[in-house]
Amino acid sequence: MSARAARVRRAGVVAARVLTALAIVLAAAWGAFALAFQAPGGRVGRDVAVALWIAFSAAALGFARRRRRLAPAVFAAAFGLLLLWWHSIAPSNGRLWADDVARTARGSVVGDRVVIDDVRDFEWRSDTDYTARWQTRSYDLRRLRSVDLILSYWGGPAIAHMIVSFGFDDDRYVAFSVEVRREKTEAYSEIGGFFKQFEIAVIAADERDVVRVRTNVRGEDDYLYRVKLAPAAMRALFAAYVEEANRLAREPRFYDTVTANCTTLVYHMMQQIVGRIPFDHRLLLTGYLPEYVYALGALDTRYPLATLRAFGRITERARAADASPTFSTDIRAGIPPLDAR
């Protein structure tokens, strides 16, 4: 073998070792997070499982660096078993849920009449002090007049929760919020959202509940944008929310921070209604969603987006309206109506 061939061979061996080590490190990190969130046995069981997995992974990495070919194979087999366990973890609708997601919307559409069960209408005094109310409400799609996009900012300019609210000509509104379905003992975790910690829920709610709890109780900053949709598309989107809520009531699904959240579900519903919509990073960085919707021409393009944002900041109006029976009308004061469609 020539000297050049020997150098190439050595470089290939080194590269293979580096890639093997990197694969072990990445798989070990993923496995540690998966066990930290899902291993049985409570906190102690999860801690023990993570510690054992890290020790095993470190040993496999150490042996692999000493040119032991068996170590990567053993680690790969163990990781395969971990993946089998991971895929066996199924979502459920039968857990002890936090009160605000204890029920999820379910509805029926018969012609133009929609009946929604378990519309949330909580009276919030604080995040832990509230009067729980769930109601059955009916809506006439012939009277549907508006769709509004509400962004509630809670984690900086890139992070916001999206709510879609439907308005009727009798000044009634129903807001749909795709939310993390937490158990009573759980708190939201962005990382946990990657590791099957939560299910996902469609909540139908009165705006005085779902908006007010964010602006007046949790101190979030909310913005409302009027969305341009043809009447048929508005009705189709409303029916799509009801259909998705019913589907999740039958077939629970895990929340995922990236692929199954408050924005991506609506994105897929809108694709079914208006056809292909280009995917964009702003669908993941939800705080920038208004820029994306504006670029599609679906907001009021008579005004610059900065002006719409100023018109649509409803935080102070919501805090002033508080529990007013005209809450929905009050928060829209000063927002220009869309052109007649």
Description:
This protein is of the alpha+beta class and 341 residues long. The chain contains 11 helices and 10 strands. The chain has helices spanning 3-38, 42-65, 70-87, 207-210, 212-217, 231-250, 264-274, 289-295, 305-312, 315-321, 327-331; strands at residues 106-110, 113-120, 123-124, 130-131, 134-140, 144-153, 160-168, 173-181, 199-205, 221-227. The strands form 3 sheets. The protein has a 5-stranded antiparallel β-sheet with strand order 9-8-7-6-10. Strand 7 (160-168) and strand 8 (173-181) form a beta hairpin. Helix 1 packs antiparallel against helix 2 (42-65), helix 1 (3-38) packs parallel to helix 3 and helix 2 packs antiparallel against helix 3. It is elongated. It starts with a helix and ends in a 10-residue tail after the last helix.
What does this entry show, briefly?
With 341 residues, the protein is of the alpha+beta class.
